[in-house]
Structure formats: structure tokens, C-alpha cells
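Sequence, please.
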């Protein structure tokens, strides 16, 4: 009963469909919606475009359910462009089960921008971000020059996986500009790295008294901003990440021919049973 999409003007839209108001109502009466985010303007560097569907997931912040809306910008029609400063965005809405309304019942869609108070710029913030703000905020990650998102992300057990494309900086006169791809793995709520994808870092025995092991992986390796991403083995524009659930063995994340071993989600694969009871009086 909810529809989300981005457009090539850097906007994100939400529409809510209400089928409880009677079959005699027109589609205009049943459908409400508006822009919920604006992440572009009319300057060349900020002319961001969204070509792929947003990734919508439930997220609990301090025990309160929220919706996370995650998507990245990238000029698919011109993948070699290096002028636009593309970014990956993940913002939140507290209106999970129906259209957002004010205290007087008026439907009003809140709008998020990069300048929204509480919207965290991960390019400037410390690597470890403790974000427990319950309002409709989130974070965004500035990408490297020329780097862009050319597929949808996937949310897996509280983590985000998405791929980016980086055009080649050096090409010969007769050579195609193939470029390369990268995969990112981030915490959905904060944008922090959750695993060491860079194969770098330093050992640490420091335990944060507030967050326990926040900022380190299970081996005690301290994580920093470079651990969010890894270069893919195949050249060219990468596909989106795929989550596979085989009949036997653990669930696995693949990006093309690359397997993301760091994503451990075997606990999500559990057998569920159900029964249908027939009421003889019906």
C-alpha cells in the first residue's frame, strides 16, 4: 500500500494507497503522496539523478520501528561523467503504517535534504557514529570523484550492500574506458563499516564502554572509513548485489562472480511451519 521512487531531478517520492475508504471513491481520493526528499539543485556538481528503485526496509531505533529509504545517485546515461558529485543516501521516516499526518489529521509529507538537521555527512563525521535520533533523519555518504551508483542496494539483517562504478582515469586513443566497480557494506542505521572489506586496519584491545565493541569487528580489528568498500575483481559496471538462499548451506551474497564472505546471515535461514484449519460451518 506504499509506493516509493526516485527521479532524475534528485527527488524521492512516496505515495500511500488507502483502500479502506470505500470502493466508490476515485483513485485520486484513495491515493496521496508527495516529494519526501530533495538531494539535487541546478548546479552541475549537484545535478544528481536516481535511475534505480529505492531500497525500503524496517529499522528499529531505540525500540521504535521506522522505515529506512536507501538509494544512490548516478548518471546512467553518461557513466564516464566526473562532474556530478554523486552520493549514497539512507534516510528514515517514522510513518510506517500509513500516510504521515499532523495533529489535526492533515496529511503532510515531511521532506529531507542534505541540510536537514541531524542528517549525518559521513564524509565529515567520525568513523564511529552513534545515531539514536528518532526523527525522520539519516545519513549520506559522498562518493569519490566520478564514482556513481548504477543499481539498487539491498538491506540484509541491518546492513546495506550496494555497488558503485568508477570510470577509468587513463585510456588510450583506441582503448575503451572500461573502469572498475566496488562493493560497500555498511550499518543501516549509522553508515558505519561493519566488516573489514579493505584488508587493512590495526589490531586494538580498546573496548568502548558505551557501545561495547562498536568500531571493531569480531576479531578485534579496528575499523575505519576505508573498510566500507572493496574493489571488485571484474572490470566495468558491476551488477547489483544478490542474496541467495540455497537448499543446503548458508545464505550468501554475490556481486557478479565475487562472493562477499563477510556477510554472515545463516541465522536468518530458519524453517517455518504453518497449518490451514477449515471451518466446517463456512
Amino acid at each position: 500500500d506504499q509506493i516509493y521512487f526516485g527521479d532524475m531531478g534528485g527527488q524521492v517520492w512516496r505515495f500511500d494507497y488507502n483502500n479502506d475508504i470505500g470502493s466508490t471513491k476515485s483513485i485520486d481520493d484513495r491515493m496521496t503522496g508527495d516529494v519526501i526528499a530533495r538531494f539535487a539543485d541546478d548546479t552541475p556538481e549537484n545535478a544528481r539523478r536516481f535511475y534505480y528503485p529505492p531500497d525500503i526496509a524496517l529499522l528499529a531505533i531505540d525500540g521504535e520501528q521506522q522505515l529506512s529509504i536507501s538509494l544512490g545517485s548516478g548518471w546512467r546515461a553518461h557513466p564516464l561523467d566526473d562532474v556530478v558529485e554523486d552520493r549514497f543516501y539512507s534516510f528514515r521516516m517514522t510513518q510506517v503504517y500509513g500516510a504521515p499526518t499532523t495533529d489535526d489529521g492533515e496529511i503532510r509529507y515531511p521532506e529531507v535534504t542534505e541540510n536537514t538537521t541531524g542528517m549525518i555527512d559521513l564524509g565529515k563525521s567520525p568513523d564511529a557514529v552513534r545515531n539514536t535520533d528518532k526523527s525522520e533523519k539519516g545519513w549520506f555518504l559522498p562518493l569519490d570523484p566520478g564514482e556513481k551508483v548504477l543499481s539498487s542496494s539491498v538491506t540484509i539483517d541491518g546492513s546495506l550492500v550496494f555497488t558503485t562504478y568508477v570510470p577509468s582515469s587513463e585510456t588510450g586513443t583506441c582503448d575503451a574506458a572500461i573502469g572498475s566497480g566496488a562493493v560497500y557494506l555498511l550499518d543501516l542505521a549509522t553508515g558505519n563499516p561493519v566488516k573489514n572489506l579493505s584488508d587493512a586496519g590495526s589490531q586494538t584491545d580498546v573496548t568502548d564502554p558505551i557501545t561495547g565493541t562498536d568500531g571493531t569487528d569480531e576479531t578485534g580489528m579496528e575499523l575505519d572509513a576505508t573498510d566500507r568498500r572493496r574493489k571488485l575483481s571484474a572490470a566495468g559496471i558491476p551488477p547489483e548485489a544478490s542474496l541467495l538462499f540455497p537448499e543446503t548451506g548458508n545464505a550468501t551474497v554475490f556481486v557478479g562472480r565475487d562472493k562477499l564472505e563477510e556477510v554472515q546471515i545463516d541465522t536468518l535461514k530458519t524453517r517455518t511451519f504453518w497449518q490451514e484449519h477449515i471451518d466446517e460451518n463456512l
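The first strand starts at residue 2 and ends at 6.
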